[in-house]
Amino acid sequence: MSGTALVLGGGGPVGGAWMVGVLAGLAEAGVELGRADVVIGTSAGAIFGTRLLHGESPRELYERQLVGEDRIDLKVSAAQTFRFLWAACGSRDSRRSAQRLGRAALAATTPAESEVLDTVRALLGGEQPWPERALRIASVDAETGEVETFGPESSLTLVEAVAASCAVPLVWPPASAAGRRWIDGGCRSAGNVHLARGHQRVVAVVPIPSAPGPHPSARQEADELAAGGVSVALLTPDSAARRAMGRDMTADNRRPNAARAGHAQATSLAQTVADVLHG
Q1: Helix axes 12-28 and 58-66, enclosed angle (nearest 10)
Q2: DSSP 174
Q3: 230-248 pLDDT tens trace
Q4: Whole-prediction pTM value?
Q5: Three-point CA angle 112, 17, 95, nearest 5°
Q6: How are the residues of the chain apportioned to helix, strand and coil, as percentages rounded to the nearest 5?
Q7: DSSP E strands: which ranges in the chain?
Q8: Each residue's pLDDT tens digit, 246-263
Q9: Distance CA 34, CA 5 (A)
């Protein structure tokens, strides 16, 4: 094992705001996570991990949340939520649960893929190349239910990879890339902490500790890594952050307070994270 991995989980606009607050709070306390040997991003984590490696500072990302920038207009109906949960929870097997979500996503009426690509492209600041430093972006094959990661060696552009990771079933269309269809990388694990296997030190910032359905939680994945000798710091929302975030991860008006809650939480955890990075 070698090196340090920064894992950034999914969580929608609100969870992403909390995550950015955590990154900014840690950076101000002297813990610079952007220097990790690899960044592993899922959904919102793919967006902000990409931007971090392209030179935006945690403080810049944080301040944009406070003033309402980086807005994503996700309109999720009660019917979509019900269909998502019905698909995700209709099997006791993790892969089959993801396959059910994939089938539901492929059959759903959603915006055009081109609209999603335009949204992701705007969030990334344009048609960005893959960053020079290691970035892995997680997505789930809509047909097989398997988690895969993309990097610069893949046939996908960076925008395509991030769009695939952000393709929330029933809300955004499955992304078409490499001759396959892809859904949100958090469908089997909201954090994908297990993807950091092989690294000696792991810091995971995961807004949603457990994905709906029969999937391992971020804590379970972190514990498995720790049992194998990995030094792990897992950061998930505390009670104050959960109150600030609320239950609707698409509620735009929640983003500023969620970001502030993440910033406050990070201040109290900075030493713990530093111990993992440098211990």
Answers
A1: 130
A2: P
A3: 999 999 999 999 999 999 9
A4: 0.96
A5: 60
A6: 45, 15, 40
A7: 4-8, 38-42, 134-141, 147-150, 175-177, 180-184, 201-205, 231-235
A8: 999 999 999 999 999 999
A9: 10
